[in-house]
Amino acid sequence: MPKIVIIEPNGTRRELDAPVGKSLMHIGRDAGLDIEGACDGAMACSTCHVYVDPAWLGKLPKMGEDESDMLDLAFGVTDRSRLGCQIVMTEELDGLTVVLPKSTRNALLG
């Protein structure tokens, strides 16, 4: 089974099993990490915002316009920002590393 590494805002590294076909947001939430995912992956909030390790950016599917628009509402967006609900695990993403931001903004609440 593929694995992912999620680095919490305090620097704690968590290596998690990452079932193929499951989103990074759901994997992190199931592990008890602080990934809110208020819209449960409907891409209607930005509470699953993550920073992707630069080595992995080119290995992810291209960001769609809807994801880009939603990220416009997130705090601290960088060129490494993605929504965890839009990163669906594949065998090729084994070892993917992301960092959780220190805070998020729920776009559902405005």
Describe this structure in words.
With 110 residues, this protein is α+β, with helices and mostly antiparallel strands. 13% of the residues lie in helices and 19% in strands. A hairpin with a 5-residue loop joins strand 1 (3-7) and strand 2. 28% of the residues are buried.
Which key features would you list for this structure?
single chain, 110 residues, alpha+beta, five-stranded mixed beta sheet, 2 helices, globular
β content, as a range?
15-25%
Q: By helix and strand content, what is the structural category?
A: alpha+beta
Total beta-strand segments = 5
N-C termini distance? 38 Å
**Which ranges are low-confidence, i.e. pLDDT below 50, for 5 or more consecutive residues?**
none
Q: What is the average of the pLDDT values? A: 92
The outline comes out as globular
Given the structure, what is the number of helices?
2
The H-and-E topology, N to C, reads as EEHEHEE
The residue fraction in helices comes out at 10-25%
Rg over CA atoms, rounded to whole Å, is 12 Å
Biggest beta sheet attributes: 5 strands, mixed
Strand order of the largest sheet: 2-1-5-3-4
Topology summary:
Elements (H helix, E strand, L loop, with lengths): L2 E5 L5 E5 L6 H7 L18 E4 L12 H7 L9 E3 L12 E4 L11
Parallel strand pairs: 1-5
Antiparallel strand pairs: 1-2, 3-4, 3-5
Short description:
Helices cover 13% and strands 19% of the residues. With 110 residues, it is an alpha+beta fold.
